[in-house]
Amino acid sequence: MPAAALMRIMGRQRQGPWPGWLPVGGPAHHNAPMPSPNDASETTPLSAGVTGTAPGLTVVLGGTGGIGAALVEALSARGEQVLELGRRTVPRLDYAEESSVADAAQFLQQQLAQRGQTLTRLIVATGFLHGETASGQQAEPERSWKHLSADALSHSFQVNAIGPALVMRHFLPLLPRQGPCVAAFLSARVGSIGDNALGGWYAYRASKAALNQLVRTASIELARRNRQAVCMALHPGTVDTGLSQPFAKTGLQVRPPAEAAAELLAVLDGLTAADTGGFRDHRGQVVPW
Q1: Secondary structure percentages of the chain, helix, strand, coil, to 5
Q2: What is the pTM of this model?
Q3: Would residue 20 be called left, alpha or beta, if left means φ above 0 and alpha means ψ between -120 and 50 degrees?
Q4: How many CA atoms lie within 13 A of 264 on its CB side?
Q5: What is the DSSP letter of 135?
Q6: Which site among 7, 15, 92, 229 is 20 to 30 Å from 221 CA-CA?
């Protein structure tokens, strides 16, 4: 089928062999064989093993959002096969309905089996800072404990922590049991407890801190399945998207989504198994928990 017939259409039903799939040429990732105990697997970059007939697949959850869409575009331009999933894709993935997360994972599992592919990279690019909650109320970052709201706290934890936890339950088992692979969850520096010197933003800080703990815990279990796997949290920096636009201050480095995506992918490409369970920013620098 011609590549033009499988073009991704932003915000609409996707065309192609399965919805949201971006066909590409170029190098293909696949499962590398399990190394011997003497192999230096902890220093093998995750971009290694780019050979074989069964191309690896990258899945971006939240792939229709600002950073997520930029990641999808950047990966496609690099010649990688990408599947984006979110609330506006088919199948639909909505953190408010665990069944949709399970159904999306089942769909992915079936497609991987049918196509002989391996899930080599899972990127979770979802998040909530402000806007309308599930109940229809408006939530804004709190400047004081006087502004704390059970509704805003509940929604922030649903999107920033509970949803990604459900992704761990249903999607992490789809990662290969051998060979390099990565699960990356977009977090935020303000979720760092050790780096919190300003206060405020209670719901966002606490829910992202919860995500960090979930990532750290999942990385331990994932390593028991595959010692070359990496599971980590990433801080994308301040990006010019709907999430951060209202809070971009003068003098703050605000980057376009395409630039942020390129930086994040550069960090992911350089990771090794020794980095699993970590928290890094878009420059690759370690962020304190």
Answers
A1: 40, 15, 45
A2: 0.81
A3: left
A4: 35
A5: T
A6: 92
Tell me: pLDDT of 198 over 90: yes
8 is a domain residue: no
Report pLDDT for 51. 27
- Pair of tokens at residue 27: 């190098």
Handedness of CA 143, 144, 146, 148 (dihedral sign): positive
With 60 as the cut, is the pLDDT of residue 15 above it?
Answer: no
The CATH number that applies at residue 150 is: 3.40.50.720
The domain containing residue 188 runs over which residues? 17-281
Contact 247, 141 (CB under 8 A): yes
The total domain count for the chain is 1
Number of residues assigned to the chain? 289
Query: Is 288 part of any domain?
Result: no
Closest Cα to residue 87, out of 134, 130, 120? 134
As a whole number, mean pLDDT of residues 95-109 equals 97
Highest mean pLDDT among 2-11, 36-45, 186-195, 253-262: 186-195
Structure tokens belonging to residue 57: 């697949």
Is the residue at 11 inside a domain? no
> CA-CA distance, 204 to 181, in Å (whole number)?
29
Tokens (6 digits) for 73: 């575009």
| DSSP string over 26-76 | S----PPPPPPTTS-GGG--TT----SSS-EEEEEETTTSHHHHHHHHHHH
In this predicted structure, what is the pLDDT of residue 66? 87
Q: Computed from CA positions of residues 107, 110, 112, 115, in that sequence, does the dihedral angle turn out positive or negative?
A: negative
